[in-house]
Amino acid sequence: KPIKILGEEFTLYRGEGGKPHVVDFRCAHRQTQLSVGWVEDDCIRCRFHGWKYDSSGQCIEQPAEKESFAEKIRIRSCPTEEYLKLIFVYFGEGDPPPLPRYPRPAVQLRQQSGKRSDSYSVYAPRVGVLYESPAGDSRHHGRGKRLGRAVNFALSQRAALYHATRAA
Q: Which of 60, 70, 87, 136 lies at 20 to 30 Å from 101 by C-alpha?
């Protein structure tokens, strides 16, 4: 899947085991978008000439080329970690610092589409607002009344809409 973070384009894909990976947006060969390729094991293969990259960005296979040539080709790769159904990507140099392990939130997220008539409909990146203010309605809307009007978020056309419900 093509993604854009801080003005830069990347390819986000899940290996066949389900682990997320973030690599350069384009193949090193002819600059074809890797997001239109396909996943094999934990690798992504470019659809144009079939160059295959592992999750570290190393080219490991080039059809019709000598094996030794693939060893010289590498694309950028960023360490990723999935925690609480969110994907964290490290863009710094060297090894990433350990990801803080916060307790599970008192809400559960389930994917929702379209508008939702509920003031607790949030985008996943905005869940922190619920941590900050679990009584969000009373703080932001006066007296804790549910206003019941449709909430439509336009943060990003590609962002998934989630609905938060109190955990049992």
A: 136
H or E stretch covering 125: none
Provide the H-helix boundaries in 49-107: 67-70
Run of H or E residues at 141: helix 136-141
The b-or-e profile of 73-91 (16+ CB within 10 A means b, else e) is bbbebbbbeeeeeeeebee
Give the C-alpha separation, 55 to 65, whole Å.
21
In tens, the pLDDT along 74-131 reads 898 899 999 888 889 998 888 888 888 888 777 766 666 655 544 444 444 444 444 4
Burial track 42-66 (b if 16+ CB lie within 10 A, e otherwise): bbbbbeeebbbbbbebbbeebeeee
pLDDT tens, 23-71? 887 787 777 888 888 899 989 998 878 889 999 988 888 887 877 887 8
107 burial (CB, 10 Å; 0-12 / 13-18 / 19+) is middle
DSSP single-letter state for residue 130: H
**If we measure between CA atoms, which residue out of 47, 51, 46 comes closest to residue 64?**
51
Is residue 71 within 8 Å of 63, Cβ to Cβ? no
